[in-house]
Design brief:
Blueprint: H1 44-55, H2 61-64, H3 69-95, H4 114-133, H5 140-164, H6 168-188, H7 196-221, E1 237-238, E2 241-242, H8 243-271, H9 278-306
Helix pairs in contact: 3-5, 3-9, 4-5, 5-9, 6-8, 6-9, 7-8, 8-9
Length: 308
């Protein structure tokens, strides 16, 4: 399992001998074929109905009420639209009226951290709630709220970094879109696919990275690390190369592979015939990964530019 958002039976490979266990799962067809269709005994009315069905356009996600890739893409775009709106609000509130081009040479600028903190905490809590309740019911309203809180967080942290290193947000956004675009193109062309072995390695690396990040956070909060190390252990150097740069490259690769798993599990949900509402859960999973990717790239660029 890559993204905790996809820890749901709707996105898992189903055993054809068993009935799927997620809400709204399609059930096995019951009953025998109508006797009128045996031995070619199809009347004219049935023929006309069949011809009409074949001539009609293919049913979409709305008509079938089943999850589709296209519908999930639109849902994902909608969530990112909400994120961008609240990111603009978080940006303005964090700056507190300071214009970004006005760099503060004396480091007297004190950002308003409230949008940043509220967004991070609200996003984390909602992500946990969505993940642990989605097995019983998908609640799009919670996913919308998650996107809004993540927007506050992204807008707040981005505006602060932009004051310190003008142009960094554009660079991070361009890099993020490039990674997502290349990963999607390679996945769509069949050049890269998820594998059990690679996923196991990914999970081990992910757990190790989470432990490292938590330890770094604790050491920074407790004042164990030097105050001049803005990013804690990430700021340490190995043979003149910032540790954050080395780890950051590996984490970007991990995030790209996480996207591959996200795309693969969305396709699995479509193959399973998951209800259309599960498209919101797929969109939520992609947003979690893309936000993670953006923050990591933002930190990599900040470390590199901070050493210039």
């Amino acid at each position: 399992m890559s993204n905790f958002a996809f820890n749901n039976p709707a996105f898992q490979q189903q055993d054809p001998r068993n009935v799927a266990t997620y809400p709204g799962a399609p059930q096995a067809a019951q009953g025998a074929q109508s006797a009128s269709f045996q031995h070619g005994a199809v009347d004219a009315a049935a023929n006309a109905q069949l011809e009409g069905m074949y001539a009609a356009p293919s049913a979409g996600a709305i008509e079938t009420d089943r999850m589709s890739v296209e519908d999930t893409v639109w849902k994902t775009a909608g969530l990112f639209g909400i994120l961008l709106v609240t990111a603009a609000i978080g940006w303005v509130l964090t700056l507190g009226g300071l214009s970004v081009p006005e760099r503060d040479p004396y480091n007297t600028f004190q950002p308003n951290l409230l949008p940043w903190m509220v967004g991070a905490l609200g996003g984390f809590v909602l992500a946990m709630v969505i993940t642990f309740t989605s097995r019983k019911k998908i609640r799009p309203a919670l996913i919308f709220a998650y996107a809004a809180f993540e927007g506050l967080f992204i807008g707040g942290i981005s505006s602060y970094f932009e004051v310190l290193w003008p142009g960094i947000v554009f660079q991070a956004t361009l890099a993020t879109l490039s990674v997502v675009g290349v990963t999607l193109a390679l996945f769509a062309s069949g050049k890269i696919r998820a594998s059990k072995k690679a996923t196991k390695i990914f999970m081990i690396a992910m757990i190790g990275y989470l432990v490292f990040s938590l330890l770094n956070l604790v050491l920074m909060w407790t004042g164990v690390l030097p105050a001049d190390q803005a990013f804690g252990m990430y700021s340490a150097e190995i043979m003149g190369i910032p540790l954050g740069l080395i780890i950051g490259v590996l984490v970007v690769i991990m995030a790209a592979y996480s996207l591959v798993l996200d795309f693969d599990q969305i396709q699995q949900g479509v193959r399973n015939g998951a209800p259309r509402v599960y498209g919101w859960l797929g969109a939520f999973g992609i947003m979690v990964t893309v936000v993670w990717l953006y923050v990591e790239i933002l930190r990599i660029i900040a470390i590199v530019r901070g050493n210039d």
